[in-house]
Amino acid sequence: MITMHDPASIAGEKLAFMAKLWTVHRKSAKAYAEKFGCEWVPDRRPWEVPCDIAMPTAMENELDGAHSGI
After folding, report:
1. CA-based max dimension of the chain
2. pLDDT at 20
3. Distance of alpha carbon 24 from alpha carbon 49, whole angstroms
């Protein structure tokens, strides 16, 4: 599992880049981290990083209600 964290938020140009990265180019968020200079952490689960939104990119049900704090 890999985690990418952008403390400056993912909005506007960044959100458009991420959407195109996943839907058109089928690439991981690592390209986003490299382009925008944010944290890319291999072997870490996304819910270990405090955030407003967690976006799992796989279909393994890796994020559930218990992890989201609901």
Report:
1. 33
2. 92
3. 27
pTM: 0.62
How many whole angstroms separate alpha carbon 3 and alpha carbon 49? 8
Beta bridge partners of 42: 2
Burial bucket for residue 23 (CB in 10 Å: 0-12, 13-18, 19+)? exposed
Report pLDDT digits (tens) over 2-16.
577 788 888 899 989
Which run of H or of E encompasses 41?
strand 39-42
Q: Which two tokens stand for residue 50?
A: 């405090």
Domain ranges (residues) in the chain: 2-68
